[in-house]
Design a protein that fits this description.
The chain is an alpha/beta fold. The chain contains 14 helices and 12 strands.
Length: 364
C-alpha cells in the first residue's frame, strides 16, 4: 500500500440510500488524489444500475466482480486439506502456473495428476465455490442446513429488491432446474408456468444480472453474431447454488441430495464449464461474457458451447461418458471427456480443462 494515500473501505454500500452520490461527491473533491476508495456490495443489480450514473468519476476500469472459487482456485486453496500425499504440493504448484484459454487447452503438465484432479472435481461438484459450504464440508463431510438456507434467502432477497414476484421467480427457477443446459425459449417457459413470455424474459435477465444463471444464445456462424430468434440454453452459475435451489424446491435430505447430484452430473458439469468459460475474459462494461460465449444448433446438429476469439469460433462438446464417439462439426471442436485423452482427436478430460483454465483479472 502507498503510505501517502488514505484508504477508505465501504462494505455493503448498497444499504446506504443514494450511495452513488456519496462516491460522486468524494470523486469530485479536491483531495481525491490522496484517496483510494474500495466500495463493495452484494447486490449486483443495484451496483450496476447506480454506477452507470457515475461516468468520469474514476469508476471506469476499477470495477471488479467477486465470484465463487473457480475449480482452479479450489485446487490451489483446498487440495492440501483433501489430499495428504506428498504429490499434492507439486499438483498445486503446477496448477498455479497454468493459465490457458478455452481454445488452446495445454493439459500436458496436468496428466500425471489426473486421478487426484478427478477426485477434487467430484468434491467441487458437491461444495461449489462458495467458502462456507467448502469449509462445512471439509469439517463434517456434509454441508450444514443453515448454509443452504442462507444462500436461498440471499437469492430470494435479491429478487424481492427488484420488486418482482417471488412465486414467479420460483416457478422459473424450478423450470431451469429441470431443464439445465437444454434448448428452450421464452414461450415454452411461459406456457409451463402460466405467465407472459415477456415476463419470462424480464425475470431471466434479473436472475442473470444477479449472477445466478447464464442465458446462452445461439450463434449465427456465418454472420458471427447471435441469432436472437433461436432457442436459448440456461446454465446455473455455481454447483452449490444448484444444490441449494434443488433442496429448497424439492425438499431433499442430504443423502437424497447426493443421489440426485449424481444423477444430474452430466448437465451439472455442462453448467460448470459454461460458468468457467464465462469468466475467461469478462470485464464489467468493457467485455461482457455473452460477447464471446454461446452455443450452436442447426437441424440435427448441436455444439454444447461455442467460444469466440479474434472473430473465430471454437466448439466445446461435453461428453461425460466412459466411451466417446466424436462427430463432424462445422467448426474446430474440442471434446471434454470424463477421463479419456486423445490429442489427435482433441479429446481431453473435463477436470484437467477446468484446472488450467484462465480467469479474467476483473473476476476476483
Amino acid at each position: 500500500m502507498d503510505k501517502n494515500k488514505i484508504y477508505i473501505f465501504l462494505d455493503e454500500i448498497t444499504y446506504l440510500p443514494n450511495w452513488f452520490l456519496v462516491l460522486k461527491n468524494i470523486a469530485e473533491s479536491p483531495w481525491i488524489g490522496k484517496l483510494a476508495i474500495v466500495a463493495t456490495g452484494s447486490s449486483p443489480i443495484k451496483i450496476r444500475e447506480k454506477t452507470e450514473r457515475l461516468p468520469g468519476r474514476r469508476i471506469e476500469g476499477n470495477e471488479y466482480y467477486m465470484k465463487p472459487y473457480t475449480f482452479k482456485e479450489f485446487i490451489i486453496n483446498v487440495a492440501k486439506r483433501l489430499i495428504k500425499e506428498k504429490i499434492v504440493e507439486k499438483l498445486v504448484n503446477t496448477v498455479k502456473k497454468l493459465n490457458f484459454p478455452p481454445d488452446q487447452p495445454d493439459i500436458h503438465h496436468l496428466e500425471p495428476f489426473i486421478e487426484e484432479i478427478n477426485f477434487l472435481l467430484e468434491t467441487y461438484l458437491i461444495t461449489g465455490g462458495f467458502p462456507e459450504p467448502i469449509t462445512s464440508y471439509l469439517q463434517n463431510r456434509k454441508i450444514n442446513e443453515n448454509i443452504f438456507e442462507t444462500i436461498i434467502r440471499t437469492c430470494l432477497g435479491e429478487i424481492s429488491k427488484t420488486g418482482k414476484s417471488e412465486a414467479t421467480a420460483i416457478g422459473i427457477l424450478n423450470y431451469i432446474l429441470e431443464n439445465i443446459s437444454r434448448r428452450t425459449d421464452y414461450i415454452t417457459i411461459a406456457r409451463k408456468i402460466g405467465i407472459h413470455h415477456e415476463t419470462v424474459k424480464d425475470y431471466l435477465e434479473t436472475l442473470q444480472n444477479s449472477f445466478m444463471i447464464y442465458v446462452l444464445h445461439c450463434w449465427n456462424l456465418n454472420k458471427k453474431t447471435h441469432a436472437p430468434r433461436k432457442q436459448k440454453k440456461i446454465a446455473i452459475s455455481d454447483p452449490f447454488l444448484h444444490h441449494a435451489l434443488l433442496k429448497y424446491l424439492k425438499g431433499f435430505e442430504w443423502n437424497d441430495l447426493l443421489d440426485e447430484i449424481e444423477r444430474r452430473k452430466p448437465a451439472l458439469i455442462e453448467s460448470l464449464v459454461i460458468s468457467h468459460i464465462a469468466q475467461v475474459e469478462e470485464k464489467p462494461h468493457i467485455k461482457e461474457w455473452w460477447t464471446y460465449l454461446g452455443y450452436y444448433y442447426s437441424n440435427n446438429k448441436e455444439i454444447d458451447i461455442v467460444y469466440k476469439k479474434d472473430n473465430k469460433f471454437t466448439g466445446i462438446e461435453i461428453k461425460y461418458e466412459e466411451t466417446i464417439k466424436t462427430r463432424k462439426t462445422p467448426i474446430k471442436t474440442i471434446t471434454l471427456s470424463k477421463d479419456q485423452v486423445e490429442y489427435q482427436k482433441q479429446i481431453i478430460p473435463i477436470s484437467l480443462f477446468l484446472a488450467g483454465l484462465k480467469k479474467s483479472g476483473k473476476n476476483i
